[in-house]
Amino acid sequence: MLQAVKGTRDLLPGTCQKFRHVEQTASQIASLYGFDEIETPILEPAALFLRSLGDTSDIVSKEMYRFTDAGGDDLVLRPEGTAGVARALISEGLAQELPLKLFYRGPMFRRERPQKGRYRQFYQCGIELLGVESPAADLEVIACGYHMLQELGLSQNLTLRLNSIGDLESRAQFREALKTYLLQHREQLSKDSQDRLERNPLRILDSKDPGDRKLLEHAPRLEQSLTPQAREFFLKVQQGLQALKIPVVIDPLLVRGLDYYCHTVFEFTTENLGAQNAVLAGGRYDGLVSDLGGPKVPGVGWAFGTDRLVLLLDELKSEWKRAPSFALIPVGERAEAELPKMAQELRRAGLRVDLSFSGNLGKRMKRADKVGATAAVIFGDNELNADRFQIKHLKTGTQTEVPRAQIIAELQRLAAQP
Ligand code: AMP
Q1: Are 288 and 388 part of one and the same domain?
Q2: Residue 300 shares a structural domain with residue 403
Q3: Ligand 1 centre distance from Cα of residue 207 (Å)
Q4: pLDDT tens across 234-293, in order?
Q5: What average pLDDT does the structure give for the chain?
Q6: How far is the centre of ligand 1, averaged over its atoms, from the C-alpha of 336 (Å)?
């Protein structure tokens, strides 16, 4: 039997509804902050990610779906959204319109080991604010993310972690200090971290290995290497968050897996999803656009994992309200013939109507129950002759008779009830 590709999922109707709910909430809140939606292609040139994410990132070194197409082009199914937005800024000449505030959503692809909350095709929503150097932009994007999580009813269960990885100068200094320290303890480091020591020692801060984490407790702190400017920048972001009453935990070990970040990095994490605890993550990336051959355009943004927010909503047993719907149940040939016209009238009036197409009254009532209909409209020869139809309330089981001309008004009244 043919199965979905490992690490990919069919989002069935109930789940799909939750995905759309999360995406729509995100898009509405993004729009309150002035972010407009952009959609970039899923297929991008491999060079885009090789140049932006850095050779030592997990994504580039082992997770990209990269292939040569029949025409010989070196392509990748996008593993994340920021690089594509930066590419669009350059190739569409959007640098004339700065500052730019963009929102995106869609599937991303990484060949990771699948588990709960981690898929090979997963979905992200993200925002990018391009063209603003000041910490006000960092504050704006974090505040927007927090607002979305609040709107989804999740902010109580999440922790915002924040760190500064400084400017280029701060980072170069820290890199050396960290490397010197870790070289003294090389033998105690995990194999992965030993490999990273030469190529990207900062990534070791990210290590989940308990031995590594113990060693890191006494490692030099990034904070000590921040230049006065970088320190000032970090402070402004913190003060801004405080003024907005957004709770934050400073996490000196927070670094992001990708090369293009500087200054502010942040993550919203949860205790409710096991190992996959990051739900929203981002930071500042002032060098990205110029690294890709574009003008010098600073940027800051984040992405959340839609799959993980949906899991979290399920975990917290959030209620999903189904839109009210109604079942139309004809009894006999005349009613059956009348059915499409009836259904059309109700739907044109904005009512959700389900038809079961076959079966007797009992079978059709069962289906009405199964789809969660609020009420069933039942009509046969008698009702058609009298021009009065039966409305059966499925929750209470009560039945009322309503003149045909008043059915739409009656169903609209029922649909509006909480
Ligand atoms: P990143 O682009 O790695 O910063 O990830 C941003 C967010 O996307 C994470 O916090 C997760 O919520 C989500 N995410 C990343 N990778 C996956 C994955 N393989 N499966 C599901 N969600 C993911």
Answers
A1: no
A2: no
A3: 17
A4: 999 999 999 999 999 999 888 876 777 899 999 999 988 888 899 999 999 999 999 999
A5: 93
A6: 50
pLDDT of res. 282: 97
Residue by residue, what is the 3-state secondary structure of the chain?
A: CCCCCCCCCCCCHHHHHHHHHHHHHHHHHHHHCCCEECCCCCEEEHHHHHHHHCCCCHHHHHHCEEEECCCCCEEEECCCCHHHHHHHHHHCCHHHHCCEEEEEEEEEECCCCCECCECCEEEEEEEEEECCCCHHHHHHHHHHHHHHHHHCCCHHHEEEEEEECCCHHHHHHHHHHHHHHHHHCHHHCCHHHHHHHHHCHHHHHHCCCHHHHHHHCCCCCHHHHCCHHHHHHHHHHHHHHHHCCCCCEECCCCCCCCCCCEEEEEEEEECCCCCCCEEEEEEECCCHHHHCCCCCCCEEEEEEEHHHHHHHHHHCCCCCCCCCCEEEEECCHHHHHHHHHHHHHHHHCCCCEECCCCCCHHHHHHHHHHCCCCEEEEECHHHHHHCEEEEEECCCCCEEEEEHHHHHHHHHHHHHCC
* 233 and 365 housed in the same domain: no
Q: Ligand 1 centroid to 326 CA: how many Å? A: 39
| Rounded mean pLDDT, 40-69 | 93
Residues 281 and 409 in one domain: no
Q: Is the CB–ligand 1 distance for residue 302 below 6 Å? A: no
Q: What is the CATH number of the domain that holds 147?
A: 3.30.930.10
Cα of 304 vs centre of ligand 1, distance in Å, is 7
Whether residue 251 sits in one domain with residue 374: no
Same domain (yes/no): 383, 404: yes
- Residue range of the domain that includes 342: 325-416
When divided into structural domains, the chain yields a total of 2
CA of 83 to the centre of ligand 1 (A): 15
Mutate which of 85, 308, 309 for ligand 1 pocket (most atoms within 8 A of beta carbon)? 308
Does residue 80's CB lie within 6 angstroms of at least one atom of ligand 1? Answer: yes
- Ligand 1 in reach of 277 Cβ (< 6 A): no
Higher per-residue confidence, 258 vs 312 = 312
State whether 377 and 275 are in the same domain.
no
Q: How confident is the model at residue 58 (pLDDT cuts 50, 70, 90)?
A: confident
The residue whose CA is least distant from atom 1 of ligand 1 is 281
